[in-house]
Structure formats: structure tokens, C-alpha cells
Amino acid sequence: MDKTINVTLKIWRQAGPKAKGEFITYKMDNVSTDSSFLEMLDVLNEKLVKEHKEPVAFDHDCREGICGMCSLYINGHPHGKDSETTTCQLHMRRFKDGETITVEPWRSAAFPVIKDLMVDRGAYDKIIQAGGYVSISTGGVPDANAIPISKDIADEAMDAATCIGCGACAAACKNGSAMLFVAAKVSQLALLPQGKVEAARRAKAMVAKMDELGFGNCTNTGACEAECPKAVSITHIARLNREFLKAKFKD
Amino acid sequence: MWLIDSSIGRKFIMSITGAFLVLFLIFHSLMNIVVIISPEGYNAICEFLGANWYAVVGTIVLAAGFVIHIVYALYLTLQNMRARGKQRYDVSENQKSVEWSSQNMFVLGVIVLGFLVLHFYNFWYKMQFAELTGIQTGLFDPANGAAYVSDLFSSWIYCVVYIVWLVALWFHLTHGVWSALHTLGWNNKTWMPRVKMISNIVSTIVILMFMSIPVYYLFS
């Protein structure tokens, strides 16, 4: 038989973007420790629907830790306390019997709450639209080693590319800064020959968009890296600074 | 102007002025330990840095560095508070890898600035200010720095106050030095631990040199 625990949930409920929110407490009994955190919330919502109450709105999609859709600030950490884990990969076995779990939405001026635990992360899409791409078609997959790229650089670009754009970095940052996200996107392209051509223009456009959308200024605390479900390193921020300053001094 | 309008531009100004102030602190601490080795030598430096034109120009440039660093700190902090939003987290837990100083740079800066005002009253007002204006503001000759130092630190309270100030400055510097290099783009995976180590070594040496003076007077 699988083990079960009883937990108390303190969940942020907010009817809409302009409505005033508050914490509502729910008791959850006999939660299977094998269930994921989101499955536990599904059970809660089923219960709420049966009682003819409004279910809790939260974002989720693939539930296998790759799409970046799930969010939730659980007990003071984005995606919960586990490192390198998204909320959907967080399991109830990580909680103690009788524990009170506080669940909040991302809180950042650039991520307004849509409803309950769901926030509008469209700001990240707008930053990508500002320059997070390669403007020319690079054609089909080239033959291996047709363009020689060192293992170090390939690894570094790949590490940056693991960013799933979930928004945990800005949610964790005391300054509400999106620097880790922007740095990952600028890095992954600036390191490779296909993206290098537009590196200067991209860094300037993406940083300008980030500032315009009301994200804060990075103070290098490293909270983003500690909370990032993909452990994207803040050394990418140093690269973004370098790319941006180089571009500005060239102008 | 990108140095005002863009976040990285503003941070660039913070790091440049910060690095400049660190250079000044290195000079200031080196100058200070002379008072332990030779009070006459220290007075010779005080004489050299009195109301001479190069000392006055240096002071103005230095003051500008301080003012820009503080004005930008205010601007950045206000913007960051706004970016965080009105609704704060109910439960918020710190991550182990995040240095305490990195999250309290503004508070540390305010503490450092507060003590700096006292420090100006203790020394600058009685020395350079007195020499420039010709008004006698202290007990001794404006260039007799050694006398002012030994007079102030004959009180153990002042020794403790200065040591507390230096501890706050140490915390500010340990994050500030590596953070400035990081913002200037001089960092990567290999250099990250090195840059942090350099930052710790530089701030510790500077603060130990400063601290040796009140400690020396406290025990002599």
C-alpha cells in the first residue's frame, strides 16, 4: 500500500487581475505520497467542483518538466524547495505529515496575476520577439562537423538553451529582474556561428525590451540560479553584460 | 542616453564608480598604516594632501565618485522595489548559495554612509576643511594628522565605533568587488570562484589595514 499524508494548503485566491486576493486554507486528507504536487491540486479541484465551488486556477501543461508552463511559489521557493525541479516534477513525498504548505503565484510587477495562481508571463514572449531568434533560415541539418564548434562552446550553448522560460528567475529575484532569462537566450545564440552575426543587435534589443516591460536591475545575488529548475548559471549574465557593453561602445 | 536608460548601463556606472572607490580605499588604507610605523611620515603625507591643488582636484573627483555611486544606488533600488510589485510574498525563504551581503547592499551602503558623516566630522572638517578655509576647527594643526588619530582613538568607544563601521564596509566590499567585475562582463565559469576569491582577499586586506589602527590604539 502506498503511504498517505494529511496536509493543510494555504492557497492564494484572486478572482481576477483587478480583484483583491486573499489566502484560503484547505485541508487535504489521505494524499498519496506518490502523487505529484499538481496531481494533489487536481484532487483538490475535483473536490471543489463537487462542492460547486470555483476550482483553483494554476498553469500546467506537459507535466514532465520540459515545457516551463507550471509555476507556483511553494513554501517560499519557486517550484518548491527541491533544486533543479519544476513544480510538476515535485512529489508529495517531499512533504511531512501535518505540514502547512503555502502556495502563492509568481509575484513581480511584470508578471500580473490573471487568476488565483496563474500569472501573465507574456512579458517573456515579448522579450523573445524583440530579438531572441536568428533572422535568416539556416537551412536543413548540416553534416556533423561541417561547421567545427569546440566541445566547450557547444556545451556552454546547450546549458544556456536548457532554459524553459518558466519565470522562476524573475519570481525568485528580490529585484524582479529577468536577467537570467535574457542572458540564457542571448548566450545560446551568441556562442554559435549562426547566431553570432546578430549578437550585438540582439543583446541591445532584448535588454531594451526587458527594461521597457518593467523588470528590475540585476544585483548579482544569484537567487535566480539557485531556484532555476534547469540550473542555468549566472555566468551567462556576465556574457550578456559583455555582449551589451561591447555593442554599446561600438555605437 | 544608455547609461541612464538601460539597466546594464546603470549597473555599468555602479561598477565603475564602485571600482574607483575601491581603488581609493586601497590608497587610503595604505596611507593609514603609516601612522603606526611612523607618525612623522604620516604627517608628511597629511601635509602633502592638504590644500594643494592636486589634493583639492583629487577630493572633488572622489566626491563626484561617491555622489554618483549613491545617486545611482537610490535610483536602482527604487526601480527594483517597483519591479518587485506591491504584493509581497507571504512566505519567502533564502537560498543557501545567496550571500547575505548581496541582498543587503543598500542597507550596508546606508550604514557606511552614516559613519562616513561622523568620519568627516572627526577628520576631514578638522584637517582639509580647516586648511582650505583657514578656520581653526580642531585642537591641533590641520596637517598634524597623527595627533588627531591618537586623540580620537584614545577613546575606546570611538575604536569600537570605527571597527563596527569597517565590518559593515567589509560586507559591502565582499559582494561589491566581484559583482562589479561580473557586471563589467569579466567573468565566466572558470573565473567565477577566482573572482569571488579575489574579491574576498582584496576586501579583507583593505579592511584589516584600516582596522589595524583602532586596534593598535586600543591596545597601546
CATH T-level topology of the largest domain in chain A: Fumarate Reductase Iron-sulfur Protein, Chain B, domain 2
Might you state the CATH topology name of chain B?
3 helical TM bundles of succinate and fumarate reductases
Task: Please give the count of helices of chain A.
Answer: 9
Overall pLDDT confidence of chain A: 95
Helix proportion range of chain A: 25-40%
End-to-end CA span of chain A: 67 Å
Q: What is the CA-based Rg of chain B, rounded? A: 19 Å
CATH superfamily of the largest domain in chain A: Alpha-helical ferredoxin
Whole-number radius of gyration of chain A? 20 Å
**How would the global form of chain B be characterised?**
globular
Taking the sheet with the most strands of chain B, its summary is: none
Q: Structural class of the secondary structure composition of chain A?
A: alpha+beta
**Average pLDDT rating of chain B:** 94
- Alpha-beta classification of chain B: mainly alpha
Helix-strand sequence of chain A: EEHEEEEEHHHHHHHH
Largest interface: A-B, 53 and 45 residues
CATH architecture of the largest domain in chain A: Orthogonal Bundle
Give the secondary structure arrangement, pairings included.
The complex is a heterodimer of chains A (251) and B (220).
Chain A: E1 4-13, E2 22-32, H1 37-50, E3 73-74, E4 77-78, E5 100-104, E6 113-115, E7 118-119, H2 122-129, H3 151-161, H4 168-172, H5 179-190, H6 193-196, H7 199-212, H8 223-227, H9 235-250
Parallel strand pairs in A: 1-5
Antiparallel strand pairs in A: 1-2, 3-4, 3-5, 6-7
Helix pairs in contact in A: 2-7, 3-5, 5-7, 5-9, 7-9
Chain B: H1 2-5, H2 7-37, H3 39-48, H4 53-84, H5 100-103, H6 105-124, H7 128-133, H8 145-152, H9 156-183, H10 191-218
Helix pairs in contact in B: 2-3, 2-4, 2-9, 2-10, 6-9, 9-10
